[in-house]
Each structure stands twice: as C-alpha cells, then as structure tokens.
Amino acid sequence: MSIDVTGPMNERYDEILTERALGLIETLHRTYDGRRKELLERREQRVAEIAAGASLGFLPETKDVRDDPEWRVAPAAPGLVDRRVEITGPTDRKMTINALNSGAKVWLADQEDANTPTWENVVGGQLNLLDAISRRIDFSTDAKSYALKPDEELATIVVRPRGWHLPEKHIQVDGEPVSGSLVDFALYFAACAELQLARGQGPYFYLPKMESHLEARLWNDVFVTAQDTIRIPRGTIRATVLIETYPAAFEMEEILYELRDHSAGLNAGRWDYMFSVIKTHRTRGKDFQLPDRNSVTMTVPFMRAYTELLVRTCHKRGAHAIGGMAAFIPSKDPAVNEQAFAKVEADKTREAGDGFDGSWVAHPGMVETCRTVFDSVLGDKPNQVDKLREDVAVTADQLLDVASTPGEVTEAGLRNNVSVAVQYLAAWLEGTGAVGIFNLMEDAATAEISRSQIWQWRRNEVVLDTGETVTTDLVERIADEEIDKLGNPGRYDAARSLFLEVALADEYIDFLTLPAYERFN
Ligand SMILES: CC(=O)SCCNC(=O)CCNC(=O)[C@H](O)C(C)(C)COP(=O)(O)OP(=O)(O)OC[C@H]1O[C@@H](n2cnc3c(N)ncnc32)[C@H](O)[C@@H]1OP(=O)(O)O
Ligand SMILES: O=CC(=O)O
Ligand SMILES: [Mg+2]
C-alpha cells in the first residue's frame, strides 16, 4: 500500500484511519481520481463556453432518459421514509448529541458547508459519528451533561461529505492529496456501514455541489465499488443529491437516473444555488446579476421555477423532494425571535404546500415549527411522493430568468456582504464552519454568495443607491470600516486578507474554501 497519512495520529484516530478504511480510499483514488479530475475540467470548460455566450439548457443527449416514463428510483430505505424534518449541523461532539436528540427525523451530519475541514474536524467528526452509532457518546461541561435519548427517538444519520473539488492533503497516494469527498465517504463507510445495517438502517449520504449527471455517475460507481469491497449488497447505500448548482438544475432527472439504485431523492440547496447562479454567469454582465442578498427570496421567479421543477421531477420518479434551509435562527431578542419563527413557518408552509416531503432546519429550536407545518399537510402519511405536480411545466427560460428579480444593489447590502464574509471567514479559519451572524445562520454557501456578489458588482461597475460605484478602493474602505465596528483588533487580519482575495481577485476563485484550506498546514 502506498497511501500515507501525513496528519497527526491523535488519540483514537487509529479507530477511524484503519487499514480497511485506508485501503478503500486507495482503491477509490486509483480507480476514480482521473475521472474526478476530468469532470472538474468539464466544469471549467462549461464556464468558458457560457462566458463566450452559450446558454445552459436541458441536454439533447439525455432526452431519452427524461422521456422514458417507466423508470423509478429504489423504494425509500429504512429510516428515510418519513423525512418531514431534517436538522443539519457539524459533527462536533455536543452538536452530534443535540442533533440526534432534536426530534428531527433525519440529521444531516455535515462535513461540508457547515464544517471547516481541519484534520481534527475531519477525523474527530468521524469518531463522533462512530461513537454515536455505537451508542457510547456522551459529553459534559461544568453546567450540563449530554447523552443520547432512546433509539426510537433519534434522528437517522445522513452524512454529507465534501464536494468533488476539495482535496484532503493529510492523506496522500503516491505523494498526491486524495479527494476530500472520497475521504469523508470512505472513512464513514468503512467504520459505520455494517453498524448501521445491524441497527436496521444503512450508510446514507447527502451529495453536495454536483454540476452534472456524469458527476452523479461517478458517485454511483464509487458506491458500487465500496459495497462490493466490503461485500454488502449493491443498493444498500442511499444518497440524496443536493440540486444546488445552476447546471445541475437542468439535469435533475438524469442525476436521479444515474443514482436510481442508490437514490434517496433530491434536495433544493438554495444557498449554493444562488452562489452558482452568480458564479456560472459572472462575466455575462447585468442579466445575471442579483440584487442585495436579502432581497433574493424563494418566491422570486427563477427560484420558484427551480423548486417547482425539483418537486415535479422527484415525484415523477418516486423520489423524495426535500426542501432547503431557511437561515433564520432563534434569537434572545423577543422581536427578532418572533420574526425568525414567523419566517421559518412561512418558508416551510410554502414548501409543504408545493409538495416537498420534508425540509431542513438549522437549529433544534426550529424542529417543532417545521414538524407542525408538515404534520398538517401530510396527516397520517409519511411523505407526499404521490403528489405528482403534473400541473408544473418549467422551461429553461424560466430557470434562466434572473433578470426579472426585483430589488436594488445598495450600500447597506454591500456592507452586509463585506461584514458577513469577513466574520464568517474568521470563524472558518478558527475551525468553525457555521456561525450565527446578524441573526442568520451563515455557512460556506451563504458566505460564497456574499463574496461572489461583491466580485460581480465590482466587475459590472455597479452604481449603488448612494450614487457611488463599486470599486476595489470602495470595498477595501468598507472592509476596514466594518472590521472597526466589530471591535476586536487583530482577530480579523487573516480573514480580511482572505476576503479581499476571494472578493476582488481579477481571476474569479472557484470556491473560497480552496485558498482558505491552503492557510492550514
Ligand atoms: C446552506 C447549507 O448548507 S445549510 C446546512 C449547513 N449549515 C448548518 O448545518 C448550520 C447548522 N446550525 C448551526 O451550526 C448553529 O445553529 C449555529 C452555528 C447557526 C448557531 O449555533 P449556536 O450559536 O450554538 O446557537 P444557540 O446558542 O442558539 O444554540 C443553542 C443550543 O442548540 C445547539 N444547536 C444549535 N444548532 C444546532 C444544530 N444545528 N445541531 C445541533 N445542535 C445545535 C447548540 O449547540 C446549543 O446547545 P446547548 O444549549 O446544549 O449548549
Ligand atoms: O447546502 C445547502 C445550500 O443551500 O447550499
Ligand atoms: Mg450547499
């Protein structure tokens, strides 16, 4: 074996970095890394084509898949039939226990948007998952002790590995870093697949940030190899794909088809979707420019088209459609708190009415609100996959209609983006991938929107409501002013420089997490 672990072997890491797990990573790397890299290159080619005037659209070469009325995804697996409330969050020890105990049906154990992939978070998170599934997890502070509730009250665990673009530099094959996706997948699969099966569930995953059905095919092949390697039946793994990139919205049906034996449906990942809308068309001028982040709601035409199409596509194929994250979190300020709950309730009510089978919350305090809304729509049924939404007919033009989004670009919006991005990056660099900022949950996806808007507004020389044009000088000045307001001299130095890099570099940086990750050893 020529696989090397270059990160430290801290206490109990040998329980995760086993010969079996490393062997699986090496096999997956040798078999699939070439394809992964080719698919990443295809992303670049598509962006170049779009920059030259091409348009996204439904693919002519996969028309047969879309037109074939026969195929369906596999029936829902145990623990994934009723998904009316899903809580998401990082895999630190306390939050693992809190999420599993939260009353949600599913816990998205996040190694992606809500996680900084430090070596300690990557391997420590896997240990927490192993301990949780082995029912030997506990945690205590001076004030409080944490333990799991009885089995029947716990959420089903669904792990979200990193996206295809991220490397894991602490594990190398022939001196080359392996894919973060394959590491997160294989470490969990090797440690926990059989334990989950013994508990009557299975190794379940959420798959982020895919841009095409060919990327879904790659995941499917990875699943087949992994299942064959440890001799468990094909189809044991289940995966819900986040439709959270603009190109993927045009390939929803094909993505379900590629993964049909392993599919557990699709999720409308709204925050990365907005990021991807900006990113994909970043050089196409004002037709694909969004107004202030807070004015892009789920009811603007292009967002509505995307979620409607997602429900229709899923239910046509017997798959669950899962709603997205309303970023409002509970607040200690009663007025803000009341607003947050009202907004989450409205968001979940729209989703449940549209036919989604369940949705996401960011905080245990929101579980009941989401459950109550879905209870009232689902009644005794575990889901509404039978609601076919044949009334929906979404065209490519509707998905692409960004230009009719109402709203302005304001100085307040620019300041908000700068402040949120800097605060988030500071937390990320300190090892925390999700934080509450200005009463909203912020994570890698929401921070990507903030910095990409600034990049696009500067490139488009947008004139703000104040009459000022967005320039490098203006963004730098606002960054200094906003950092001053935060009043913690020195804390934001590294975040400021990272922010200016990802918001203002002449050549757009694909993901802020790439240069951010380089700042770690
Ligand atoms: C775009 C997307 O991808 S969305 C999905 C990815 N993003 C996420 O998953 C974010 C999930 N949410 C979070 O991480 C958190 O809610 C935050 C960071 C936004 C706020 O967390 P906090 O500042 O700790 O909130 P707060 O103080 O109100 O928490 C109260 C309690 O709830 C717990 N809690 C809050 N959110 C969660 C969660 N998502 N999972 C488990 N426990 C949670 C806290 O740990 C705390 O526990 P304690 O009382 O036992 O100490
Ligand atoms: O991962 C979810 C999103 O909205 O992004
Ligand atoms: Mg996302």
UniProtKB/TrEMBL annotation:
GO cellular component terms, semicolon-separated: cytoplasm
Domain Malate synthase TIM barrel: residue ranges: 156-401
Single GO BP term: glyoxylate cycle
UniProt xrefs under InterPro entries: Malate_synth_C_sf, Malate_synth_sf, Malate_synthA, Malate_synthase_CS, Malate_synthase_TIM, MS_C, MS_N, MS_N_TIM-barrel_dom
Keyword Translocase: no
Annotated ranges, domain Malate synthase C-terminal: 409-519
Keywords: Glyoxylate bypass, Transferase, Tricarboxylic acid cycle
GO MF entry, a single one: malate synthase activity
EC number: 2.3.3.9
PROSITE patterns tied to this protein: MALATE_SYNTHASE (PS00510)
Catalytic activity: glyoxylate + acetyl-CoA + H2O = (S)-malate + CoA + H(+)
Domain annotation Malate synthase N-terminal: ranges: 4-63
Known pathway: Carbohydrate metabolism; glyoxylate cycle; (S)-malate from isocitrate: step 2/2
Active site per UniProt: R160, D443
UniProt similarity note: Belongs to the malate synthase family.
UniProt xrefs under PANTHER family: MALATE SYNTHASE, MALATE SYNTHASE 1-RELATED
Name of this protein: Malate synthase
Species for this entry: Kribbella pratensis
